[in-house]
Amino acid sequence: MIPMYDLSLHILDIVENSIRAGARNVWIDIMQNTKKKRLDIIIKDDGKGMDDKEIRSASDPFFTTKKGKKVGLGISLFAQAAHATDGEIIIKSQKGKGTEVRASFNLYHPDMKPLGDMDETVRVLRATHRDVTFRYIKHDKYMP
Amino acid sequence: MKLKPSDLDKIAQKMRSVTNLRKGTSRIKITVHMGTCGIASGARDILSAFLSCVEEEGVSDVLITTSGCAGLCSREPMATVEARDKPPVKYVDLTKEKVKRIFKDYVMGGKIVEEYALAIGSERVL
Ligand SMILES: Nc1ncnc2c1ncn2[C@@H]1O[C@H](COP(=O)(O)OP(=O)(O)OP(=O)(O)O)[C@@H](O)[C@H]1O
Ligand code: FES
Ligand SMILES: [Mg+2]
Asked: How do residues A14-33 score in pLDDT, each as one tens digit?
């Protein structure tokens, strides 16, 4: 794949899933902790959610619910980016309630991708989906 | 959470403006395909470029939105432009320059930019 896929583009990709799932609210939280050398990205939505089977298949590149499409790459690539830094990805979802995708990264790993232009990602999301509310917060040092 | 009557009004108002948009009070709808390959080939910049055109021209009847993948990875970035009462035109291999041209010629001028179009309606032109 194209090497220039920075984290802000992964986030855009994951949020597009939320929009396809009919979300009215999307929460994006980025937590950077330089002391713990860790970066966490949490994308949460109130879209239609997934059942257990769908969650399991969601990170499989050969699974997609999109019509006429053979592979779904968004989540797999995001997971790959996290795994490349020895990080991990966790998907929590409840049918009818919403979905949370949480990825953690080792901040100083040589394969860590740059964050990229988050402001631009949030700006285009807001401009093109006016009926969806996006909340974006970048927390520095803070760790839950 | 308790809802006040004024909140309900606000919600109703918001819903109305959303449905108006959906019902197509806008003259032209531009859909940029934002599947994974679309994004990888630069769809965010293309979206940005369309938004800048809207701003520069000061038009309020052009709706810009996104959809998932259109199943044609090799021709991304792509956008579908739908003018009311006209067949949708699918533009492929987009660049910022092409976006400007499409906006000027087609959105503002009504002239399809055939060199960049993949298909008009269900007919293939390229
Ligand atoms: N936020 C979400 N809410 C509900 N379902 C989701 C969500 N995110 C992903 N899914 C499900 O998981 C599938 C896989 O997602 P993924 O982003 O990996 O691929 P895709 O969106 O199908 O295609 P691509 O991202 O390559 O254009 C989706 O088709 C959808 O069914
Ligand atoms: S995302 Fe693959 S064809 Fe569009
Ligand atoms: Mg996706």
From this structure: 999 999 999 999 999 999 99
At B21, list the tokens: 């948009």
Indicate yes or no: pTM above 0.80: yes
Residue B125: what pLDDT? 41
Instruction: Say yes or no: B73 contacts chain A, CB-CB below 8 A.
Output: no
Mark B15-46 as b/e (b = at least 16 C-beta within 10 Å).
Answer: eeeeeeeeeeebebbbbbbbbbbbbbbbbbbb
> Looking at the domain assignment, is residue A61 inside a domain?
yes
Q: What angle do CA A137, A85, A65 make, to 5 degrees?
A: 70
- The answer to whether the beta carbons of residues A129 and B65 sit under 8 Å apart is yes
CATH number of B26-120: 3.40.30.10
Positive or negative, the Cα torsion across A15, A19, A21, A22?
A: positive
Q: What residues pack around ion ligand 3 (CB closer than 5 A)?
A: A 17, 74
A-B contacts at Cβ under 8 angstroms:
60
State how far the Cα of A77 lies from the Cα of A58, in Å rounded to an integer.
11
Interface-testing mutation among A16, A62, A63, A123, with chain B (most B C-beta atoms within 10 A): A16
Residue A67's domain is classified under what CATH number? Answer: 3.30.565.10
- Compute the distance between CA of residue B47 and CA of residue A95 in angstroms, rounded to an integer: 31
Atom of ligand 2 nearest to the CA of B76: 4
ipTM for the complex? Answer: 0.85
